[in-house]
Amino acid sequence: MATKKPKEHSSVKKAFEDVPEIGHGWKWHYDTAYNVLWWLIKHKKVAPAPIRSLALQGVNNLIQINELDRLKIWNEDDRYHNIHIPEDEHVTVASVIVVELFTPNEAATLEKYIKKNKWNERTRTATRETNSERLAQARSRNGMSWWRLADVVNTEGYYVPDAHRTRLPDGIEWVQLKAIQVGSGLTAVVARVNFNDTHSKKLDDVWHADHEPYMERSKTMGAFSKLHPVDRQFATYKATQKTRDDLHSLARDWMTKHCPGYFAMHGEKQLSMDVMMTERYNPVSKSAKRPDNDVHDALRALGIDGSDFYRITAPEIPDMLLAQASRLSESVIDPERTWGLVVNRGKIVKSTENFKGFGGDANHAVSYIAEERVGPTLVLLAISQLLLVLEAQYAKLRDGAQLQHKKFKVGSVNSLSGIVLDSSLTLASIRQDVANLRRHKRWFEGANFVMTPAPIFIAKLKPEEKKPIGFFNDVMDRNDGTFKRLSKLDSDYRDILTTISQLGATGTDIKTGRWALAVSALSLIVAIIALYVSYKTGVPPSATGGN
Predict the structure, then answer these.
(1) By three-state DSSP, how is residue 398 classified?
(2) Which of 91, 112, 202, 348 is the most buried (most CB within 10 A)?
(3) Residue 496: partners with Cβ closer than 8 Å, 6 or more residues away
(4) Largest alpha-carbon pair distance within the chain?
(5) For residues 44 and 38, is the Cβ–Cβ distance under 8 A?
(6) Both ends of the chain: CA-CA distance in Å?
(7) What residues are paired with 216 via a beta bridge?
(8) Residues 99 and 382 sit within 8 Å (Cβ to Cβ)
(9) Using one digit for the tens of pLDDT, what is the confidence trace for 103-128?
(10) Which distant-in-sequence residues (6+ apart) come within 8 Å of 232 by Cβ?
(11) Which residues lie below 8 Å from residue 410, measured CB to CB, with a gap of 6+?
(12) Collapsing DSSP states into helix, strand and coil, what is residue 465?
């Protein structure tokens, strides 16, 4: 009895029957061009090297066009080149929470933008203190550890007490800003950017849309950039993840414009987290069964890995999963600065009783819980990213120091001094503040997240491997390691700066000595000329012309 061939094998055979491999026949319009170009490549006496090089580039491009034509007619049931989003599954992005940090170098900038945005004019507390006054008190460790900085609503939005009304970007209806003081030298501003209904469903619309194969051109090859066909599966991945990233960018851009801090000042993306609600998928399911292929691929399109080894959850919000953006290949989203809080809508509505205060609006209720419970953890993660930015800055200085300062110019030395001073001040300040977090963990309000192995892996683990890991301590341990590396780099660079300054001073002294010699030589020449003139005229050089 003959065995039935796998479906994917039959799909491959059918695709190559409909669109043969290029050069095998004259059915397709590019076969002629392909064969002509190969003739030029083979006949070196007819075509010079530059022509053959262009011909080879043309052959490579035609091969990619041939592959694209094949992908367009590929069997849509073959999951290796297609993706099938469950029709009854939908996703809503209620909001994006953005964290910006203000070190001692950016404290004045925060106060400047508080006044510029007129956030001092309104208060939601019984006191008459302005935000500037609260900021000064908090940084002197005499004020509140956190306070509501401002509420910003659209000019045509609904009523929010004491809110500042302004024209918000399309899609944003309400921004809530909270200031969190970490120690005395580090202030965090957490902004919850709430989207309107249209923008909340934008990701779902793109997720369920039909995405056909297309040709993509690489961005790093210049005039001879390489063409690359994208099948339906990766077309869906890229389009969906780009839409999710656009929502994060919308929130980050608003923050950069109205409240820029350390990340914005250094041209870096702020850390952000979206609140993502699903209709059917349960991110905290206790089932040990791996999600089926359609669900797995659908989650991957969203930038979520449904088979992560560890789950990050908290007992205060047991039905919510904190997940970093997927690091899978072809990811459009920045995995380092992008997080998500994934929630099943039905499950969270049943377990949460405070929806009445939001008019029964699950989007706003879950966003409020997310900002309140997860905000402090996001601040801790943002601090980790700040340390990585510092480390990258030191590495950049190291790699460019010799080239930039080999001539020991005063301007170059001053530039290096400014960068090292800025980095050293930031490092010294936040190191003490972050160290205090570990000693006074109770101050660190919010959910106590833990990392536990996913049920699918539990059966294969040893008892000691099943124990949960405290997420706070895990992040703090990694920060401690980064601090040690940064302290060593900071010490090394201050020594290098001292050496460069000394060499620069030596170089300046040598140049000054050369100029002094040149002036002395010029004076000698002038004296010789004066003596020669006096000898010819018979008038002494010191004669005044009187009797």
Answers:
(1) helix
(2) 91
(3) 401
(4) 139
(5) no
(6) 139
(7) 228
(8) yes
(9) 988 989 999 999 999 898 655 555 57
(10) 71, 74, 76, 81, 82, 83, 211, 212, 213
(11) 504, 508
(12) helix
